[in-house]
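Structure first, sequence second, as always.
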């Protein structure tokens, strides 16, 4: 980690700055693994990677995507799962509100409390995160992909759809 880092890694540093040291390390290791896979795909001249690079997908842009993806996979995704709500249940009198983990009976696990306030905070954070993702020109569903290769595949598919849609007008 003492090596000279490219300028775009500042984005990852800012994303992880407020995190606990262990969590930050986990996010950064995941990002680094994705960057190593990107270097491998570059070396083998992967056809999908070559295609998306021809569509202005630079290493810097991919690194930002990998950073956001890593943050979602390691931090926000698990929190989002804990705050998932089920559909309202119909009763004789009316519909009961949807509940996330611990909203009916709060749960304390370590220093984390799962209750209705947790659900509201997490849902707000996740939605704010996805607004940022979309504003940066990425797709929400890309945050659920596991590897660099998965992302390259889905980016190529997206770029080809854009090309097809554009060509058919």
């Amino acid at each position: 980690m003492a090596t000279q880092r490219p300028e775009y890694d500042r984005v990852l540093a800012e994303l992880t700055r407020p995190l606990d040291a262990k969590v930050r390390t986990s996010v950064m290791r995941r990002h680094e693994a994705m960057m190593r896979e990107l270097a491998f795909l570059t070396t083998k001249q992967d056809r999908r990677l070559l295609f998306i690079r021809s569509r202005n997908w630079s290493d810097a842009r991919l690194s930002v995507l990998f950073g956001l993806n890593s943050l979602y996979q390691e931090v926000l995704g698990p929190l989002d799962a804990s705050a998932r709500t089920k559909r309202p249940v119909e009763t004789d009198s009316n519909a009961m509100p949807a509940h996330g983990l611990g909203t009916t009976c709060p749960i304390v696990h370590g220093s984390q409390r799962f209750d209705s306030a947790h659900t509201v905070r997490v849902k707000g954070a996740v939605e704010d995160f996805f607004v940022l993702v979309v504003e940066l020109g990425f797709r929400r569903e890309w945050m659920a992909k596991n590897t660099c290769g998965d992302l390259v595949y889905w980016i190529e598919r997206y770029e080809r759809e854009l090309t097809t849609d554009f060509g058919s007008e």
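Margin note: Helices lie at 9-16, 21-43, 47-53, 59-82, 116-135, 148-167.
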